[in-house]
Fold this sequence. Notes:
By secondary structure, the chain is of the alpha/beta class. It folds into two domains: 3-206, 2-enoyl-CoA Hydratase, Chain A, domain 1 (Alpha-Beta Complex); 210-256, Lyase 2-enoyl-coa Hydratase, Chain  A, domain 2, CATH 1.10.12.10. Helices cover 51% and strands 15% of the residues. It has a six-stranded mixed sheet with strand order 1-2-3-4-6-9, with helices on both faces. The chain starts with a helix and ends in a 10-residue tail after the last helix.
Amino acid sequence: MTATDQAAAPLLLLREDRDGIATLTMNRPQARNALSMGLMTALLDALDAIRTDASVRAVVLAGAGPAFCAGHDLKEMRASPAQEAYEAVFTTCSRLMMAITTLPQPVIARVHGIATAAGCQLVATCDLAYGAADARFATPGVNIGLFCSTPMVALSRAVGRKAAMEMLLLGEMIPADEAVRIGLLNRAVAPAELDAAVAAAAGRIAAKSPLTLAIGKEAFYRQIDMGLEDAYAYAAAVMTRNMMTEDAAEGIDAFLGKRHPVWCGR
């Protein structure tokens, strides 16, 4: 590809910031937003920039075109059939999922069309997920001889074991209402209402103390895999640290004084 071609090529990832909310839109509609190495790298770069951007209080992850994300780019992978190339794909994907989990700001998946394999993994990894009522989900790797082992990590932490294993072993599509029932989606709404539902959730999050959200999100993912006693000990220490922040003092004083809090981020 020449420099002119590269300049004319569409961006793999679009970012729009508004009212403290950064919307990242995967922009490979012709490939159902399959996670090529280029797209995953673009997502990692964007998340890295957002991590230290104090103006961003919530992130929305969306897909352009007819689908949210169809998983890894199998054509790209088969074009480089070497172990080192495959390792690079799955390592980069794992880094992407960890970047979402460790991002201080909450991340909301806006799901339409299909979310399959690593696309379903993205949905399971995001802190919240809202979907169109006609969206569909699957971990279909078993159907092509490639078990969805990395999607399994996020899926098995988002839904119950039996539900996760059914998706992984059968490899069949499930509808949005079933995704809600098993806990993969927070809510399914009419397609025309999806943007409004996501915007409402993101707006409510953006109105809260970003420091408190960052403390709480980190604590949630740290305690979830601890034993019960260790989790309570850890959470008590986190709440003590949180209580010592200026935002906690301001929030409590505002509640007691029946006024809106003014967050300072300390």
